[in-house]
Each structure stands twice: as C-alpha cells, then as structure tokens.
C-alpha cells in the first residue's frame, strides 16, 4: 500500500511544519545512555533519546521550540543565534547543538531537567564556527558535534565533553574532489555512520562534470565527501577527508511530447542525507535544464542512493524519480507531482518498515511501505491518497 498525507501550510515556514509531522511519526528507538545505536543525521527537527521531547528550530524569530509529543504542546521556546537551521542532541539527553546560519555560530544548550512537568534548559555557550553554518550532527557515540559551514567549505569539529572547537576539516583537501576557490563545495547535509567512523557531507549545488556543459541535462554531477573520523582523538589528525563520491546524471523516464529523446537530470540542492543499513539516501531537487522547457520536465524529485557506506568503497547507485508516480499513478489515485523533496526518514534500520519523504514544494508527506528485501524498482512512489 502506498499513501500520502496532505498538509496545508499556515505560514511561509511550511517546510518546518511538514518536518515536524515527519518527526511525530518517526520517533526513533530509545538510545542507550551514551550511544544512539544508529546512524545520525542533520535536521531542523530532533527527537530526544527517550522519545519524550521534540526540538524544532524557528529561523523566523531566532529560537528553538521544545515540544511534548503526547499532547503536542510547547514546553519552552529558547532564544539562540541568528537564523537557526538545524538542531542535534547528544545521546545522554544533556546537550543540544543549534546551527545558526546567519550568525556564523553554534548555540549550545544544557538540558537541566528533561521531565515534562519540570523541563529546564539554558544556553551555556556560543561558539563561532565558520561562514553560514547550516547543519549540525552529533556522532552516535556522543563525543563530537560536526558543523557544516556552507560558505566556507569547512566542517567544524566540536568536543562535546568541554564545548571546545578541536578544529576545522578543510574539504578542499579531499582527494579527487576538485574543490577550490572558484568551485566551492557548499557543504550542507551531514550523516555519521553507526560506528562513528565516517562522516558523509553533501554538496548543496551540483557542478559541471568532466566533459559536461552548463545548461545541459547531463552536464553536471552531484558530490558527497567522506570524512574518516576518530572520535577518540582530540587533534585534527583524527578527522580527514578521504574520498569524493560523484553522483552522475541519469535518464528521468520522461520525454518531451513529440520528441523521441529521453530527458535527463542531475542531482541538485542536496539538503540532507540519511543512512539506513548499508545505504545512504539523498532527497534532492534534480535539474533538467535542456530545452525545450516544460513545467513537468525542468525539475525532478530524485532520491539518490549511495551503497556500501560502511566500507571504504561507497558507490553511486543512481536515483529514484518520485515524479514517475505522476506519470503512472495507481488506479483511483490523484495524479500530482512530489515537488522539492527536502528530507527523508525511515521507521526501521533494517527489514520491513516505512519510508517518509518531505515534499516541501507540494506541502506533502509522502509515505512508502518498504518490504524486508525490496528490489531497486520497488522504491518508486506511485500516486497519492488524499489526507
């Protein structure tokens, strides 16, 4: 069964509202005292290890809200830095890290009492990181926080034990990435493997690939950098970028009416990355700039996949195009496009479960039931169910 629930935004921050809905249906399994026990990722929403608190950033008024999920009430609103975009929690439920994009800083909040009736938390430090820190993620073992400085091509590494900056990973030093002053990487989405040994960093905007040309469907490629990390070390020797994964453009499954050539698209605007099992999933707004232009061909709802993420040889597995559900919907379902996929999450780390994708441009939460051992094709979304 495939279904999709409709959301009608009440303000310009509809993406946050849909992300909140995503968090409510995807409360993770309870973490151990010192380890999340699963991969971690950057997000504007964070759920506490006990599933009893939901944290959400509010860029419009420079704050974070703390929500009680059983009755959807706000327990607190805490002022932080300028334009917070992401929040991450430590697995011991004692600290929250907030990336303030316009403030070039990270606010650190100590959770004094997480109990609903006596909740108490306060900002204990503000660290200057780099230019436009858009995302933050805490390693599953809770030892380090990583901050993506989107306009500086660096990752700030924070020691969560004493709230000090260990240093900054310069992504321009990544072998084979070709990152320089004229070709900024723009780090955005972050994900850490379950064993806290690898950090995956997405490039937000795609760049022209070797032999490619600007303005062509197959002219650009996406990229993800892998940083090897050793959270036991307090020097930058333990945090080194090691490889670049190139995400190739591909055929979309659509043709312009009257033409025979397939249209293509390249992954673009990769805001987030989520690891499940041995794969990473990257929802993005794929671009198809070749003419002639047509509303249903210019952009596509891709979910790219990277395989073998826990090894030294991760590989590009291509992308699923959610727009194919509009071309061939299930019987009785409404034909519509899943525009601007912005986030993805799973109810389980292995076996059967459900996947949810935030379709920000359509104000939708897209659901796909996942069999225990699906084929690649079974990950397509087809049609919708009205909410």
Commentary on this structure:
It is a single chain. The chain has two helices and 28 strands. It starts with a strand and ends in a 17-residue tail after the last strand. It is globular. A hairpin with a 6-residue loop joins strand 9 (105-113) and strand 10. The strands form seven sheets. Strands 2, 15, 16, 17, 18 and 19 form a six-stranded antiparallel β-sheet that branches. It has a four-stranded antiparallel β-sheet with strand order 1-28-27-26, covered by helices on one side. It has helices at 14-25, 324-327, and strands at 2-6, 40-41, 45-47, 54-58, 63-68, 73-79, 84-89, 95-100, 105-113, 120-128, 133-138, 144-149, 154-159, 164-170, 187-192, 198-203, 207-208, 220-229, 239-247, 250-255, 262-265, 274-276, 279-287, 299-307, 315-321, 341-346, 353-359, 364-370. It is mainly beta and 387 residues long.
Q: What's the arrangement of secondary structure elements?
A:
Elements: E1 2-6, H1 14-25, E2 40-41, E3 45-47, E4 54-58, E5 63-68, E6 73-79, E7 84-89, E8 95-100, E9 105-113, E10 120-128, E11 133-138, E12 144-149, E13 154-159, E14 164-170, E15 187-192, E16 198-203, E17 207-208, E18 220-229, E19 239-247, E20 250-255, E21 262-265, E22 274-276, E23 279-287, E24 299-307, E25 315-321, H2 324-327, E26 341-346, E27 353-359, E28 364-370
Antiparallel strand pairs: 1-28, 2-15, 3-4, 4-5, 5-6, 7-8, 8-9, 9-10, 11-12, 12-13, 13-14, 15-16, 16-18, 17-18, 18-19, 20-21, 22-23, 23-24, 24-25, 26-27, 27-28
